[in-house]
Amino acid sequence: MTRWLTAQVLLISGLIPMLGYAQDQWMPPQAYGVSHGEAMPPGQYPMGSPPPEYWEGGEACPPTSPLYADLFPKERCDFYRGDSNSRLLIESTLRNTWIRYDYLNWGIGGDNTRLGAPVLPDPINGPFDLSGNDRSHRLNAQDRVTGLRPFTTVIVPKIGDSEHSGLNGSRLTMGVPMSIGELEANIWILEEAEEVERVVPFNDMIVPGLNDFQIGAVTLLEAGQLSNSTMILFSESYRASLATRVWGTEFNMVCNPITPNVGIEIQPILGIQYINLSEDLLIAGQDVPEPGTVLNHRIDSQTQNHVFGPQVGVRFVSQIKRLTLATDAKFLFGVNRIENELATRQLFAADETPRNLDDARTRFAPTFDFSVSAKCQATKHLSMFIAYELLVGGGYARAYDSLYYNSAAGTSDPPAITIDDSVDNFYAHGLVLGVELAFQ
């Protein structure tokens, strides 16, 4: 949190000198040119058409009319010499460029997942309660080597069960006017989200004198089949931590309105977008299966999602004096390049050979981006911006879904936990507050 607050302060401090330039009085747009049926005053010319003497390289400045005194000040007379059209185009583009800084307060989430394999139900009492809350349906702890542990039951926690809300983030957006519309580019990032699940061993004494020690566990399949006796036990400590990082960038051409000069203008959007979602899941803890033996279990799953591709959308804009209301809807035809890594240590034995696996694959990951916004023009150069935005997609690999909790049939065989190719949904949404600075 400290580094995010520092970054926000530094970025805002860099914008403060520019805000001084923006502190002028707001004025409504002025109409230039001559209305239909009105005679052209002597010595004046339509906007964008310099007098003939400048087409021929004349040295005099334009006539001193109010219109040209505003459009063509004396210090810019040299723009009509040489490549004047290119210079005027560059100057006009730069003067109409804008930049906006957004503060993001978002939440991210997905589907919750239990950190273990499904368990074979009891033939008499039915499914086991892996949360440990139902005393009559708890799962007995069984060690792969030493067998059943008396008076001990297990808890297999879930992760991803709640949304990571209140994440700080930043986005920087720039808009450059073009003849066919406006080119918009942005880059954004959210702070790292972390979720931690712990199981502290304790004695849940159901009746006086009858112990029931509850400890953490990772349930496993047995040779790919459901089982209720194959698991990794954590008699001393259990901790599962999930770290999620996400950032992205996009380039869009927001075309000129197809319905100009109406109450609600419609602007097509064409562009490309890239989203990077990476996660680290670490399950770690200690187990003492017998006196003198300590196992430091470790399961480390890492995923990287590189989602990129073209996107299309539409923007609805309505302007009421200083207030501009807009709704954006964009669909990303995403291609997801997924990279997975898995490392395990001391799952069944202290002298067990460490395992490191990796995998990469590509799949389709459609993503939808929706936002509603309001912008209020405070001065000629400065505007305030507020919005709500929702980003939701499918086909994203999550670290907690990329584990195949399997075990070999033989107790002397090495661990068989591998990488799973399952994918999940992903969403991010929240509030956007921004300050926009126009250079015109």
UniProtKB/TrEMBL annotation:
<protein>
    <recommendedName>
        <fullName>Legionella pneumophila major outer membrane protein</fullName>
    </recommendedName>
</protein>
<dbReference type="Pfam" id="PF07585">
    <property type="entry name" value="BBP7"/>
</dbReference>
<dbReference type="InterPro" id="IPR011446">
    <property type="entry name" value="BBP7"/>
</dbReference>
